[in-house]
Amino acid sequence: MSPRTAPAIPTRRQSLSGWGRTAPSVADIWRVGAESEVDDVFAKLGGKRAVVARGLGRSYGDAAQSAGGVVVDTTALDRVLEADLTEGWIRVGAGTSLDALMRMLLPKGWFVPVSPGTRYVTVGGAIAADIHGKNHHRDGSFCSHVTRLSLATPGGRHEVSPGSDPDLFWATAGGMGLTGIVLDATVRLLPVETSRMRVDTERAGDLDDCMARMSARDHEYRYSVAWVDCMARGARLGRSVLTRGDHAALDDLPARDRDPELARRFDATVRASVPFTAPPGLLNAVSVSAFNELWFRKAPRLRRGALESIASFFHPLDGVGDWNRLYGPRGFVQYQFVVPFGAEATVRTVLERLSSQRVASFLAVLKRFGAGDPGPLSFPAEGWTLALDLPVGPAALGPLLDDLDRAVVDVGGRVYLAKDARLRPELLEAMYPRLAEWRAVRERVDPAGVMSSDLARRLGVAGRARSTRRRTPRAGTGSGTRGTTRSTTRSATRGATRRSGAGTGPTRRATGTGSGTEER
Ligand SMILES: Cc1cc2nc3c(=O)[nH]c(=O)nc-3n(C[C@H](O)[C@H](O)[C@H](O)COP(=O)(O)OP(=O)(O)OC[C@H]3O[C@@H](n4cnc5c(N)ncnc54)[C@H](O)[C@@H]3O)c2cc1C
């Protein structure tokens, strides 16, 4: 079809990046307002452009962007379609955020079954990454609580449940948006008596101590997580603050707070926002070591039964808008991996390498996963998972992470694609050994390979890049950003951090329940 006869499509050309603000690329954004408009996307594009969905842009790397393609902004698909708050389930549009669900459901005594470290993710994004929370050891990941979903694919719509089409359901769970666009989903909810948490905190002197404490007693708590001081070395390597808790019952509250309505009130506000991108190097070995020292000492050695709000227990970072700008114009990567139980030495190796090379991680979080769910690309698997936020900049970072990837793969571990911006493609299959099985299901619903993203092309997730690899005109807004679908094999730590006016020009970013897209 010549450009003259092509149907007009309501898109806006824009530069997009993930939460880590590395490797932006230019795409046409198509904001859909209703489920039927998603069918229009496929019909009007006729398979000639790569398509991928985007939620609130909280994946760290390049999963929700597509250089030269069409990125479908799903955040307006945010209606409640059906609910049974006696049985405890809700059917919502895929663009509904977990923040909106909490605001709606907590006052009625229900909570989401799995919450990540931010509330600003959509249900579609939660399914595509099969997200996990601090309760994975107890409750598994998000898709274990999804009973059905409606999926728009280039070939048509599918109504999918784990019973009706298990292959497609589980290929979509953790499939990073590459099987189609989730339109709506039904999610089972967790009953709660209050919107408060009953929390135990304790310090662990080193990594072995932390792991021993988690292994011994995590099963007593629904939620468990350890913050690790990854700048500590020698005998203090891996010293941590362990925080574990459960939803507080009415009886756990002081008598004056036991009014059920008051007890279930959900207060969560953004207290401050980072107004501009910080200068490079603000978060460095010195500043992070000083912060970590303070944080470790501030934590109680042992405290039992403290009451905390849901927001401060689950989403402390959401209190500061645009905190990702603190990492400066080059952004940051989150390195999250899982290794099986028995491979504790690999976690130690990672911490030793980071601390000895003085690679600063402001945030390092250790959790224990329970058994994974059946998704071939779902990240969680039984074992230890460590997540580290690392500023892009030090030349040593890329080679160091490449080495750590090999250490992880050698013991049967993997990195989390929703956080990734820099993995080498040759390791993907070793990390996700059921990739071929996943590709076969995807081939069934998208034989022409229309669903694609920068992540998919960088790693060859769906196999070789296809006919959608065409040059597109450079966007006026994006000089220096990637305007073609070709260059996506360069990664965040290997130099693909070119961006237009990074750090110098104004950056407008919608946060909170906004679109999560960026305009520069
Ligand atoms: C501060 C912070 C803390 C986090 N903590 C955790 C954590 O504890 N556990 C965890 O698992 N993750 C965590 N994450 C990652 C986050 O939960 C996932 O990346 C999630 O996918 C983001 O959802 P989103 O709506 O922003 O999706 P986006 O980032 O916009 O997209 C992510 C992926 O989902 C796909 N997608 C989005 N919507 C749809 C749809 N409707 N249909 C099909 N595919 C779709 C996209 O194509 C893309 O592949 C955290 C992220 C941040 C920023």
Explain the overall architecture.
This protein has 520 residues and is of the alpha+beta class. Among the domains are: 11-75 and 436-508, no CATH class; 80-191, 2-Layer Sandwich (Uridine Diphospho-n-acetylenolpyruvylglucosamine Reductase, domain 3). The protein has helices at 35-45, 98-105, 123-128, 136-139, 166-172, 207-217, 260-263, 285-298, 310-314, 344-356, 397-410, 428-431, 435-445, 454-459; strands at residues 11-16, 25-31, 51-54, 70-73, 80-84, 89-93, 110-111, 146-153, 156-160, 181-188, 190-191, 196-204, 223-228, 240-247, 272-273, 302-309, 320-321, 332-339, 364-369, 383-391, 414-415, 508-509, 518-519. The protein has an 8-stranded antiparallel sheet. The chain has a 5-stranded antiparallel sheet with strand order 5-6-10-8-9. Strands 1-2-4-3 form a 4-stranded mixed sheet, covered by helices on one side. α10 (344-356) packs antiparallel against α11 (397-410). The longest helix is centred in the middle third of the chain and has 14 residues, at 285-298. Bound molecules: flavin-adenine dinucleotide. Flavin-adenine dinucleotide binds at residues 19, 52-59, 63-64, 74, 94, 116-118, 121-122, 124-125, 128-129, 131-133, 176-177, 181-182, 317, 418, 453, 516.
